[in-house]
Write a structure and sequence with these properties.
mainly alpha, 37% helix, globular, Uncharacterised_AF2234
Length: 104
């Protein structure tokens, strides 16, 4: 399993933004709005994405900073294109990266 990098390309592939675990989180929604505002600068290379800014890509950087996510909802990590690309099924943990930390 290759180490998954926290970069704009992987942020754009990430499906955390559609995850039921985050769906009702006010914290996540606020962060998503800020990311949308910053996206032109991120794409232009005028700024680099930072984990604390992005509500997702937890498989690369670790647990969420939002306390209002719902871990009772079904995780969809195994449906993400990064899951197959980085062979995440052979790493630990095996999903719920937002709760359990980055893939290693």
């Amino acid at each position: 399993m290759a180490k998954l990098e926290f970069n704009l390309e992987n942020v754009q592939k990430c499906i955390c933004k559609t995850c039921p675990v985050q769906a009702n989180s006010a914290c996540v929604k606020s962060k998503q709005m800020k990311v949308q505002e910053m996206m032109p600068k991120l794409i232009a290379g005028e700024m680099a994405p930072k984990p604390e800014m992005i509500p997702g890509l937890y498989c690369a950087h670790g647990k969420t900073m939002c306390a209002d996510v719902d871990f009772e909802e079904m995780c969809q990590c195994n449906e993400c294109p990064l899951w197959e690309e980085y062979d995440l099924s052979n790493g630990e943990p095996m999903g719920y990266y937002c709760r359990d930390g980055e893939a290693i």
